[in-house]
Amino acid sequence: MADISSIPPSRARTDGGTHAFPEAGSAEFSELLAKVRLDLPRRLSPKRLIHVLAVEEMAVRLGRLYLSPREEVRLRAAALLHDITKEYSVERHLEVCRKYGIKPTAIETAAPKTLHAITAAALIPDEYPALADPGVIRAVRWHTTGRRGMTVLEKLIYLADYIDESRTFPECVRLRGMFWDADPASMDAEERKEHLTRVLIESFDITLRGLIEDGMPIHPSTSEARNSLILLLKKNENRLPDEKKEGAKEPGRRGSEV
Hints:
This protein is an all-alpha fold. Helices cover about 60% and strands about 0% of the residues.
């Protein structure tokens, strides 16, 4: 399935169905995520663990603006798992790829920081089967490069990874302020969607500028993600005011685009 690219089809559901997650807030839900949090220290350095837990909390904050409460388990799962292979060596990433029949592109091998999203997503079905939901796997898979047609869950994990409170880089701080200083909670649904789109475009602009300055290749999925968001924004700008009002009344759907 294209949305879960680089993961052998036999290991990921491709029927678009949902995983049997426990209800958000239930004892089963809390126990499941607690087990993951207890497992993370064996995979991550203390500094990386602080970041991952901060991404989890930021993802939940964002989710309260854009997703229904029942999606909290997917947000938390994707946030906790997004960096499980971040500190692997390049050779270890390539070993995981070989194990699962994944063939990284020339750009991915030339920009090895992209590999951890691929290998983390590949490991989830085997190492965290209780969390191997297609939406979670996709959010982990695309949290570094983004992609065209990102779902709401994917966008929120991507942004949470960029603006969590552990990030102190000036551009991350600025982007965090750009999102929260606008008071998205006071916006209607349509305004909030547009705000997310604009902030995501700015995040991709920051990434692209950095890659160009460093002389690094640009992953095609990053360019496609940015272009798709700009086209979405222009499409919305061309809508009539009455159409925008109607759109704001429509409830969000899990996994749909914003």
